[in-house]
Amino acid sequence: MRRYRFVVCTVIGVTLIFSLFVIGYGLSSGSSNADRPAMPTERWKSIVDRGSGKGGWTFTKKPDGTVTVAGEWTYLNSITCPFTGGSVVISGPSLLFTVTGTATNPSAPSGFQDSPFALEVKGELKDGKGRGTYTITFSASVWPSGSSGAWTATRTEGQGVTE
Asked: Which helix (H) or strand (E) holds 11?
């Protein structure tokens, strides 16, 4: 009987020590969000065609140097075009991003309120101000084919992505 207790206690003890080791190793070697440096992020607000539309963009610079963009473009003050994960090229002050998504026009007749879109934005961003051109196209047959025009923008928050 004593030998049985000894074996049981030894097995429980070894199991407990092993479990604590595994838990401790996982906590000390795993990376938490607090351990990771924050990625540079900038938020920009734009005005399109002197007020007939607007945009909000968030640029994030990843650890590998790539930049992503997410935001929303409002076309003709009624058509919203949200996007995420667009392709971005920033070289010095030059900017080019291309995004796609689904546009929504709540004032359109039922069944015709949504359309896939593609948006290309070109320009320059420097010292917290920007300007350039855009082209947007819609693919739904009953929607306008799209438009192009000009935008101006101001950085509202962040740093470390653009000049």
From this structure: helix 2-29
